Amino acid sequence: MTTQTTKTPSAPASKDGAPKGLVGLPENVGRALATIGGALAVVSTFLAWTWTSAFPGDLTVYGYPGGLQVLVLIGGALTTLFGLASYGVKGLRWLTPAGADGAIKLAAIGTFATTWYTVIAISDELGGVVNLEPGGFIAAAVTLAAFLGAFSLPFERPEEEHIDEDETVGERIGRIWRHIVALLKSAVFTPSPVPARKLPAYAEILVIVAAMAVGLTVFTYGIGTEYDELFVGFLITVGFLFAALSKAGLVARISAITGRHSTITMFGAFIAAALFPFTQSDDQYATIGVYILIFATVALGLNIVVGLAGLLDLGYVAFLGVGAYTAAMVSGSPSSPFDLHLPFWLSALLGAAVAMVFGVLIGAPTLRLRGDYLAIVTLGFGEIFRITVLNMDGTSGPDITNGSNGISSIPNLDILGFDFGLEHTILGFTIGRFANYFLLMLLITLIVVVVFKRSSDSRIGRAWIAIREDETAALAMGINGFRVKLIAFALGASLAGLAGAVQAHVTYTVTPEQYQFAHVVPPNSAFLLAAVVLGGMGTIAGPLVGAALLYLIPAKLQFLGDYQLFAFGVALVLLMRFRPEGLIPNRRRQLEFHEEAEAPAVLSKTGA
After folding, report:
1. Contact 142/172 with Cβ under 8 angstroms?
2. Where is the protein localized (predicted)?
3. pLDDT one-digit tens code per residue, 455-506
């Protein structure tokens, strides 16, 4: 039986037909409750939440927020600011160019979730709510009040589907579920941001600098979270507060400013990233930083193949391995069969060149395939590479790669007398081995970003996009599809090989197990593809953000033990369900998944 989809106007929300919120409180009461609740949440963070320092973060101090209290303080402050902006307080209207109500709701949810997570964690770890001090109870109560107040703000409810008397149980459940989803979406819906008056160039550059400073602070705080509870609270807070800023229209406004100064934004972002090692007291988190950059750089190379040209490559990590093995063999390792010790720049170029040759050799006979068939062939290539280097141990094959032992004892780089394996003091800051490689890898990433940007804006880049959108139509327009796809394959392979040359020196040892299709620790082909899709295909920032999250989150979720990958997989499924275009999509791809969104007046060559 087919359910009728005829829409009927929803019933009036109140006697006068005015919309109302999910919670049955008057609008003025709810707005005041959300604003005051956010302010009291800030005050509560200066109180003790528990009597013992056994809970991580030492929440026993009065007058000094610590640990998870800092996150609640930030969430409460933002909720209060959005609430004041909704009253039209002068000087705060710039915070909510698209309206304040949706932002208030998301900020209140984030503050409520972080607070109650903390209270529940304290009770669970210390043995009951008896371990809470008055500050903990106050925080829980005021954030609940802010949450209820926020969801009493009115909104336009969606129309309900017509009820069919003959519908089945499954159809009834589906109709109810669709209505709940539409209701929640409408509750946080915000109109398009009001166009802002154009600021002077220097003011817009200052906005970009401020945005970079905030980004560096958030990343440094997240990567430096010292215990599991703090990282989970960090994810909750950042997720909801970023959504609140997005609903307020502030993210769109900053994006418009960065779009007008794209070159300044790109170099500003890399300067902010270069400052990261100087914010660390040791090499612990610089280690994570350099691996994130390696992962992100390879993901950006894959973005050329998948995001621009639309070719599904499931064996891309093999090109990273080709570059790493090539550089390891010519960098003076005692395990190498070749008695060579070339300078880094030459070994890096050689790694990129050999990877590109492999890309051409694999791509030439296979790129006439499409879709799933091409994906299967590339998956086979990735496994063939891993098995081949595993068997080149002198027993199953020629003694070249030393088999499962790999090429070990790869010496540290020494460029112009700068030994990357030693600590150095720069401007009074001491940076260690991994910080040295972080700065080098950041330079490699900048080169890859420039190559990606120039390629996507070029004639060949437009041909890639045409092939991605409709290969048959592109061929009919005179584009040589095979040549264009082969160039994408070769360029993506060479960029991965370049990153592999640095990876060989960072890890000291190159082994076949590092280059699998799927593994717990990235980079591997599955995680690389996930980073591109999760971040946003066809963009520059998307794979960088996606790679950072995919590397950082599994590393911080180790406390889940055997459930680590399960929780990670559930998070990815939910993200792809509710934001299939990725975290930082280009505008064209966003419109493909959300047809109700307003189309832009102008689309760039990449659709951004």
Report:
1. no
2. Cell membrane
3. 888 888 888 888 888 888 888 888 888 888 889 889 999 999 999 988 888 8
Q: Is 576 left (phi over 0), alpha (psi -120 to 50) or beta?
A: alpha
For residue 596, pLDDT over 60 is answered with no
* Residues paired with residue 429 on neighbouring β-strands, in sequence order: 426
DSSP state of 335: T
Tokens of 73: 């303080």
Burial class (CB in 10 A: 0-12, 13-18, 19+), 130: exposed
Strand 160-161 and strand 7-8: the pairing is antiparallel
Alpha carbon distance 552, 555 (integer Å)? 5
Cβ distance 48 to 60 under 8 Å? yes
What whole-number percentage of the chain has pLDDT above 70?
91
Q: Which of 569, 526, 494 is closest to 314 using CA atoms?
A: 526
- Give 455's contacts (C-beta < 8 A, 6+ positions apart): 304, 308, 461, 491
**Can you tell me the mean pLDDT for 520-538?**
82
Label residue 215 by pLDDT band (50, 70, 90). Answer: confident
Query: Cα-flanking dihedrals φ and ψ of residue 30, to 5°?
Result: -65, -40
Cβ atoms of residues 48 and 135 within 8 Å: yes
Residue appearing with tokens 């400013």: 257
**Beta strands 160-161 and 418-419: pairing type?**
unpaired
List, for residues 378-391, the tens digit of each pLDDT value.
Answer: 888 888 888 888 88
Q: Side chain identity at 424, as an amino acid letter? A: H
Q: Compute the distance between CA of residue 238 and CA of residue 481 in angstroms, rounded to an integer.
A: 43
Measured between alpha carbons, how far is 361 from 333 in angstroms, rounded to an integer?
28
List all residues 6 or more positions away from 498 whose beta carbon is below 8 Å from its beta carbon.
297, 323, 348, 351, 352, 355, 444, 447, 448
Asked whether residue 450 carries a pLDDT value surpassing 90, the answer given is no
- Count other C-beta atoms under 10 Å from residue 335's C-beta: 16
